[in-house]
Amino acid sequence: MGLRMMGTLVGWWMYELTNDPLALGLIGLSEVIPAVSMALYAGHIVDRSDRRNMIIRAVLSYGICVSLLLFISTAFFTHQFGKSTVIYLVYLVIFITGIIRAFSGPSFGAVISQLVPRSHLANAVTWSQGTWLTASVTGHSLAGFLIAGFGITGTLTAIILMIAMALLIFNTIGQKPAPPQAEKKTWESVKEGLRFVYKTKEVLGALVLDLFAVLFGGAVAMVPVFAKDILKVGPIGFGWLNAAADFGAIIIVILLTVFPLKKQQGKILLFSVAGFGMTIIVFGLSKLFWLSFAALFMGGVLDGISIVVRGTILQLKTPDELRGRVLSVNSMFINSSNELGQFESGIAAKLMGVVPSVVFGGCMTIAVVIATWFKAPKLKKLEYE
Fold first, then answer.
1. Is residue 238 in a domain?
2. How many CA atoms lie within 13 A of 99 on its CB side?
3. Radius of gyration for the alpha carbons in the chain, expressed in angstroms and rounded
4. Do residues 184 and 43 make contact, with C-beta atoms less than 8 angstroms apart?
5. SS3 per-residue string spanning 47-59
6. Quick check: 292 and 283 in contact, CB under 8 A?
7. How many C-beta neighbours within 10 Å does residue 171 have?
8. Into how many domains does the chain fold?
9. For residue 61, is it within any domain?
10. 87-139: per-residue pLDDT in tens?
């Protein structure tokens, strides 16, 4: 919840400081460069480390970064060093969180298989996505209310308290040592994970689909611009728009937990991503708050389906001793698609205008699905129980 609040807050804060949509894209670029660059090495480390300890170190590092943002946000710092220094330091801190994310992402994913028996793994993945989305919904919407009521500095204080609570909870989990495996040189170990992803076409297809669909469908990055300049709904409306997609996603994940998909999951994944692209187009064209909220909500429903299917494919197809490396490849795709999508949205908005750039992104998302339908037949035919 705290980290989702931080993402929402930094987007609003940066747009307030710069009034430039490109600045929102540069935030994504600042995080994706270290996250992707370090991902393969991070996966190698995760597969050879106690995963619980890796998570605790990552959360503690996030806490330090938020504390730095808290200090930077104070009136004293802005008065002493100026607005431009604040902007550059925010980019620097986000760059550092990208490094942390390279290690935290695979650690969170890999530890699930050590907490539950394999017979419950598919359902556990759905529950995991549901709890993550619950935190995301709460974090997004709560950030808007806190920004309106307590400002940037007050909201960052709340995030630090949440991270501290998370550390206490993680300390209650027992040690989760890495599965035994033969010693390999770092590069050989990294290549083993890459080879597995390349040979497992269902996994590769799902990751490539996510990469390009989210790359072009990153309209959420422009929500601060829509909230402030187009819909004119202020920070509270901004918080609700940010939460809309997550509301839709959490509802569908709860339904999928109770009524799991039984067949044709590959086709459902492709149709869901295509529908997501259509909702992005509607959001880009909308001038009404309720229609924009509804479009983002339905986008969240469809994205929630794809998250569950993709996450289940990864967990069921990956051997335990390779989880860190395979999930690091997954995090590379996710990080690059989300953050590069944010950067692409910022550049496109600068060149084409905000509304045309969002509509263009939705159209390209649909085009990616059409290409995947014909180029990845194994993904289209995928089924699991």
1. yes
2. 8
3. 20
4. no
5. CCCCHHHHHHHHH
6. yes
7. 9
8. 1
9. yes
10. 999 999 999 998 898 888 778 877 777 788 877 877 787 778 778 777 877 78
When comparing pLDDT for 67 and 21, which is higher? 67
Q: What whole-number distance in Å separates Cα of residue 61 and Cα of residue 325? A: 21
Please indicate, yes or no, if residue 243 is contained in any of the structural domains.
yes
Cβ pair 308, 132 in contact under 8 A: no
Looking up residue 363, the CATH number of its domain turns out to be 1.20.1250.20
CB 260 within 8 A of CB 126: yes
Residue 179 is assigned to a structural domain of this protein: no
The pLDDT tens digits of the residues spanning 322-331 come to 766 777 777 6
Task: Give the rounded distance of the alpha carbon of 63 from its chain centre.
Answer: 18
Write down the residue that tokens 């996030």 correspond to: 62
> Tens digit of pLDDT for each residue in 266-321?
888 889 989 999 998 999 899 899 999 999 999 889 988 887 887 777 777 777 66
Domain range holding 325? 2-174+184-380
Q: How far from 315 is each of 119, 228, 380, CA to CA, in Å?
A: 12, 40, 18
pTM summary value: 0.67
